[in-house]
Amino acid sequence: MSSYQRSDLSAELASAAARLIVEEGMEYGPAKRRAAKLLGKGGMRSVDLPGNDEVEDEVRNYLQLFCADTQPGDLLAMRKVALVWMERLQAFRPHLTGAVWRGTATRLNSVHLQLFCDDSKEAELALIDKRVDYDVGSVGGPRGETIDVLSVSSSSPELGESVTVHLSILDHDDLRGALKPDARGNAERGDLAALRRLMESAA
Predict the structure, then answer these.
(1) Which of 94, 105, 138, 186 qualifies as a cystine partner to 86, CB 3.0-4.6 A?
(2) Domains of the chain and any CATH numbers
């Protein structure tokens, strides 16, 4: 396959993945793999799939073309949900990440918060103390270890429905590395003050 063909395929995959992300609320990794299957390229290696930056560019294009009337309102509602939980869990240095932070979220997405705790069970005990129902899952952490993810359901008056909030429990020492910018120089996450600034600038 020539470099031109690879570039065309990557663009096609990124576009297909973006549609899945916006229309079905999928995460980037699963959306790219499903897009590859839909285009008859299910055997592609992960390293040959388009990068997240390329997919995100396509997501923004898709939102601008097809969701310009609804997405800004959805995003604001999702950020309000994030704000509530960041204020509730302020003791655990919450940082917002994912689509709600980067400005590409719709009502189909979830809110992703990262909590940086001295003790991994502190946040769980706080939810119990607040009588909040939650589910426990796990994902791979920044150092290759498995970390807990606490998932709660939070009502959004603006959306008229509930939003899922995922709380990833990270070690306090992971916070310094988490604040490094991405390849484009953008922050991959933001704290409570940063979220408030984002919301004020969009008002």
Answers:
(1) 94
(2) 3-66 (no CATH), 71-202 (3.30.460.10)
